[in-house]
Every structure is written in structure tokens, then in C-alpha cells.
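Appendix B. Raw example, untouched.
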Amino acid sequence: MMNYKRYKRVPVMDYPEREWPNKQIEKAPIWCSVDLRDGNQALIEPMVVEEKIEFFNMLIKLGYKEIEVGFPAASQIEFDFLRQLVERKLIPDDVKIQVLIQCREHLIKRTFEAIQGIKNVIIHIYNSTSTLQRDVVFKKNKEEIKEIAIEGVRLVKKYIEESDFPGNIELEYSPESYTGTEPEYALDVCEAVMDEWGATKDNKVIINLPATVEMTTPNVYADRIEWTIKHFKDRERVILSVHPHNDRGTGVAATELALLAGADRVEGTLFGNGERTGNVDIVTLACNMFSQGINPELDFSHINEQVEVYERCCKMNIDMRQPYAGKLVFTAFSGSHQDAISKGVQAMQERNDGYWEVPYLPVDPSDLGREYEPIVRINSQSGKGGVAFVMDTYFGYKLPKGMHKEFADVIQKIAEAQGEVSPDTIMEKFSEEYLVAKTERETPYEFESCRVTDGDDDMSTIDFKFSYKGKKYEVKEEGNGPIDAVLNAIRNNTGVKVKLLDYTEHTLGEGSHAKAASYIQLMDKETGKATFGVGVSSNITRSSIRAIFSALDRLF
């Protein structure tokens, strides 16, 4: 039995005035990447300077306008990285560089040495305000903790003046471990910081309320964010930022609810890298917005490229089930899912209204630069729709509905014996079952040649050569079209009694090298057994005759 009595429940806010449950996200927030600081410090092997530069360039390409590059006063590599960005002129004029500093004078002084030459800087200061850390780490009371934050602001102002910094500086303040801090006290500290800075509508302060540790359900975080926003003395002098972690596995949900509650800005990392279970995953957040028809203002249309850079620089692997980026997230093994996807794609193509609506696929994989090929993968759990989808998507064969189960049963036996069946194996088996030439196996029926003459009365006459069980036939026959004429020839000369149940055909390929694919279902009138045959030829009549012989070979 797990000893659950060791843990205290985090209280829910008494806040019946909440309005966020009735709202919806309508636009992207201000995004700030903390991959190069919060994410980097959580890596087993932190990035070296050149890796950080490559990662930084990728973030710029994605469209980030605010990037926290590190803690330049903490180590030489952090300092050198920032100086390389400046000296190589890698920072676009419209991008804000964010640097993190504890509220200590020697760290602030060193930080100002690092940011020289940058046009737009966010100075991010923080100190922990939580009940637990006040008690066990700092052993200070509320006023003493608040004074640390105020003194930090004074020091930033002092070094702005002393360094005669020519660029633009914004202040960001985080009451670290906000989720473990009393909401009223956190608000009091943030107001004191803004007052000391002299915040106004035209000189806003970024107030960042981090779920440094995720301690309760996302709705409680949303309540706290909305409550704080409503109790600011002057909301217009605040850019309200959130910085959620993922300790309970609900970082994305907490962030989305915080945006409903009125947050303006989100700090997070690509794919959720960060301390413990990670920071909030900005890829998931942005793509969730994208799936709702909202411009995320970040470009993940080539997501495989971001995965490659991330995995190489961070020495971390993207999980196969990672939302949007994992190798299996657009893959269906279940037969019912595969069938629904296949039908959904067909219906969408017929509807042609410009909207993506396919069961089990919330977004079009190609919009993220993903391939269609892995959408349906065939194993013993797959069904007839999945096999048909593979034949269409990979090879262009649009199997008639009645044929789906017939061929899927063939593939099912292979899957039960060996596990997953590759598309190439499926095509090989299709060719073996339906398309194989007479020289490759013993077949009772063999088509040799045919010449068709169409009459004025919609009747067709064929001069027809074929063999049956080694005996050659050369006949002339009439019918209501070439297919009927061929079947009449088979019936009248071999004594086999067959009935045509279904016939479809379509173009296979495009351009001058396109061929016709024909599908014919025949039934043995004596036994009631029915099966399909398939024929392919550059000539539509020849493809249909080949389909007849394919069916006859499978039937008898």
C-alpha cells in the first residue's frame, strides 16, 4: 500500500467569480523560448557554444521574437555564448534577448558586461517567494523576501545608469515557486517590484508567474492567474507571463487554461525539455492552436528538421508518441481507425471545401512536413480499410469495396505469422495473388490475344485466343461489350458457368505512361464461390480481359 498520508493536499482557491471557463483561446501569446537556459541546464550534457548557436538560429527561423539565452553571470560558457551572438551579429533587430539573474549585485554587474552591444534586452530577475522556501531555505519573513526583490530592481536600475546602456531594456520579475506562494503575498511582491521600477502603460514590466513545480490541477493555476490579473492596481502596466513546468504531466493544459485566464505571454521549450518532467512544450501548445484554426505565429511546417536539430544538440530523443512530432502519432494500427481514416480522406476529397476533417487525424500531417506513408501501418490488429489505404496511398490501386476484405484476409495471415507487414510486402503479395504472369505459376486459364470489333447495335465481336488446362482455343464470339463477349467465349468453350458480379476500373499513374487498372468479380454458379481478379494494361479493354483471367485463375 502506498503511504498517501504523507502528502498534503494543495488547497483550491475560494474564487467563485472565475470567468475563464467560458472563454476560448483566440490568438497566440507572446512566445519566449527558454530552451537555451532552463532547457539547457537540464541536459545530461549541456550544449557547447556552437550547438547553442545552431539552436539559437533554429529558434530565429521558427519565428521567436523573445529568447532567453542563459544565465551569463553563472559560467564562462554562458557568457561566451552571448558574446558570440553579439560579435557574429546573429541577433536580428526585432528579437529581444532575455538574460536571467538572481537579485545579487555581482551577478547583475557581470550580466551588464555580457549584454553590451545588444539592441533589445529583457533583464529577468527572480527570487523564491514560496512558504516552504521562506521557511527552510532562506529563513526569512515575508518583508525580508520582498526586500530581496525590491533590491534587485534597484541594482538593475543602478547598472543601467552606470553602464550608460544604449539599448532598450525591459524588466521581468518572477516570484519563483509561485505555485507554493500565497496569492496575496505574491501579488504584493510583484506590485512592489513594479512600483520600484516605475512601471507605466508605456513602460510595462513582465510579471512572470511560474509553476516552478506543478502542484495541483490546471484549473487551480488558472484561478490564481485570473485572480492576480483582476487584483493588479493597474493591469495596463503589466505583461502577464506564465512559465509552467510539467511535474503532474499537465503543463500544456495548465498553460492553455492560464491563457483563458488572461495570460499574455508563455515561456517554454521545444518538445518540453526541462528540469524533472520538463517545461511546458511549446510545440504542442502552438500546434494545438494551429489545429483550431489559430495562427500560432511560430512555423512548425518542417517539424522533422526541428526534431533533428533538437536531438543532435540536446542528445535527447523524441518519444514515438510525442504530440505532433513523434514517429507514431499519425499512425493507425487499429482496423476500425484505418477504415475511418480511409473513408475520411475520400470524403474530404469529394467535399473539396478546403477544410481538413479526417477521423483520428486532428491535423494534416503534411502541414507539419510529415509524410503520409506512415499514417496506416499493418499488423495483426489491422483491418480491411487499412490494407486498402496502403494500396491506394502507396501504389495507386483503388480497390473496390467488395475486394477490401478478400485481400485483407490474405495479408492478415502474414501479419499473424510475422507481425507488422511492410507496404512493399503487401504489394508483392497483391502481385502474386492477382497480377502474376502465366510464366511465374501454373494457371488453368491463360489469355493470349484478342481483337475487338464494335458493331452499330452496341454489340462487340471478339477474335479471341486463350488456353484452358493446356488446351488452346481460337474463337469468335459476340456480347454486349468486350467483357460480355469474353465471358460468353469462356462459358461456351470450357463449360465453366460464371456470373459477373462487379466491374470497376481507374487510371493508374499519370501522363502518357498511365495505365488502366481493372477489377472484376466473378462467381461460380455451381458452388457460389466468388472472387476478384485484377488486370493492368495501357489498353482498357486488355486490362479488363486480364482481370477476367485473374479472377478465373483464383476461382478454379
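End of appendix B.
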